[in-house]
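hiii so um. not sure if this is the right channel but i have a protein structure encoded as tokens and i wanna go backwards to a sequence. like what aa goes where. can anyone help
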């Protein structure tokens, strides 16, 4: 038995699936420490050498017939032994040739005295049992049994006619025991080879499926990052555009307001660029970011940015933010962010916004404005039905649906637009 190093066996798609503890005892990086044991087998070169030594050694023994003055026995033995060189690649043909030459031996020499070439028959039977075709194996067994009967009959030729039938039983059984045992060992070896090949095929299929799952997971992660990028860019640019428009109108009357507004624009632009660089880094390196994702308790920052951009907003938020799962918190944060971004883009000037967030058995979000977004075909060009093709609302629905939540967006009673979402905990 040989131990195969883990580095040469490890599955590249699942090699990093076993968690390892760091010095502090916490689960850290993943590594593969399994070193499987494999049965000892000959390689292609070893098999060639084995067959060569087998044929050469038996041929050398067959030449003893020549040395003792039996050249015909030596020729017959060599004719039976030499085909064994091709027993792995043409097992059925080799068995047929050896069986035919063994039958010819009975006609030419008889079986009164054994010869070295008779050893080739059980070897050929083993070979056809292991490497022969599906139908060659049962046919070779029948031929083997018939050959043993013929050999037993020939070996009992010394007996008187009345006792010959009983005298052939012992030699026929001994010949059949050796030849059939060799055939059975070959069949068992062939079954083992097929079983090992099936295991290898399954391992390859598992590796391919693992690689496919990794690729799908990477694709999903890239899609998530793309949605994050859309939210960051849309929110940051909408704040910058609104602030720039306000600064342009205020610069002539109150330069101080323009200065403050330009500072807000610069801060918003820098924050957006920082987050975009982080997301682009994720796309390039496929590593986890070092900056934490926004959470539910970061919603007040969105309100501050909206008010700084000149939006009139009335909020109803929890006094103390409860702990919610990170995924739910991020989804709620992005829903509020996208809703406020759509208000800036589509509700028009002087729009008033009402934002409410409650947390009980679910995170409930409601953003309502009294602008002209619905009447003007705004809010992602959804028109009066709220069923358009804007990426913002589609992204919000996808985020909420991931957590088995529900979301609706459409015109509000009395004018304006309402976005409502429920994300269960």
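sure thing!! here u go:
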């Amino acid at each position: 038995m040989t131990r195969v190093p883990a580095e040469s066996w490890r599955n590249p798609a699942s090699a990093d699936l076993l968690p390892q503890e760091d010095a502090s005892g916490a689960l850290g990086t993943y590594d593969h420490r399994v070193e499987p044991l494999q049965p000892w087998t000959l390689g292609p070169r070893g098999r060639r050498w084995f067959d060569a030594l087998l044929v050469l050694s038996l041929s050398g023994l067959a030449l003893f017939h020549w040395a003792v003055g039996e050249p015909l026995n030596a020729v017959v033995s060599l004719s039976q032994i030499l085909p064994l060189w091709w027993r792995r690649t043409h097992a059925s043909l080799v068995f047929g040739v050896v069986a035919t030459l063994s039958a010819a031996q009975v006609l030419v020499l008889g079986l009164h005295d054994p010869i070295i070439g008779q050893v080739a028959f059980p070897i050929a039977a083993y070979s056809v049992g292991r490497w022969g075709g599906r139908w060659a194996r049962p046919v070779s067994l029948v031929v083997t049994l018939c050959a043993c009967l013929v050999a037993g009959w020939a070996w009992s030729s010394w007996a008187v006619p009345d006792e010959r039938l009983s005298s052939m039983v012992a030699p026929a059984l001994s010949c059949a025991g050796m030849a059939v045992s060799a055939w059975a060992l070959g069949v068992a070896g062939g079954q083992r080879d097929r079983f090992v090949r099936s295991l290898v095929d399954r391992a390859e299929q598992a590796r391919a499926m693992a690689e496919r799952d990794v690729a799908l997971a990477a694709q999903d992660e890239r899609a998530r990052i793309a949605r994050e990028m859309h939210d960051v860019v849309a929110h940051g640019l909408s704040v910058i555009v609104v602030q720039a428009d306000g600064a342009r109108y205020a610069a002539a009357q109150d330069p101080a307001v323009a200065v403050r507004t330009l500072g807000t624009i610069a801060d918003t632009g820098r924050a957006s660029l920082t987050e975009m660089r982080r997301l682009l880094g994720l796309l390039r390196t496929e590593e986890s970011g070092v900056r934490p994702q926004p959470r539910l308790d970061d919603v007040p920052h969105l309100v501050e940015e909206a008010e700084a951009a000149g939006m009139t907003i009335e909020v109803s938020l929890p006094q103390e933010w409860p702990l919610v799962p990170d995924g739910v918190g991020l989804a709620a944060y992005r829903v509020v962010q996208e809703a406020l971004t759509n208000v800036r883009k589509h509700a028009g000037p002087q729009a008033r916004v009402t934002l409410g967030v409650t947390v009980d058995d679910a995170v409930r979000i409601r953003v309502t404005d009294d602008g002209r977004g619905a009447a003007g075909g705004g809010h992602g060009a959804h028109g009066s039905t709220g069923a358009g093709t804007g990426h913002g609302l589609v992204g919000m629905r996808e985020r909420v649906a991931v957590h088995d939540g529900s979301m609706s967006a459409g015109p509000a009673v009395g004018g304006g637009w309402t976005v409502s979402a429920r994300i269960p905990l």
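oh and Residues 1-36, 285-290, 374-389 have pLDDT under 50 and may be disordered.
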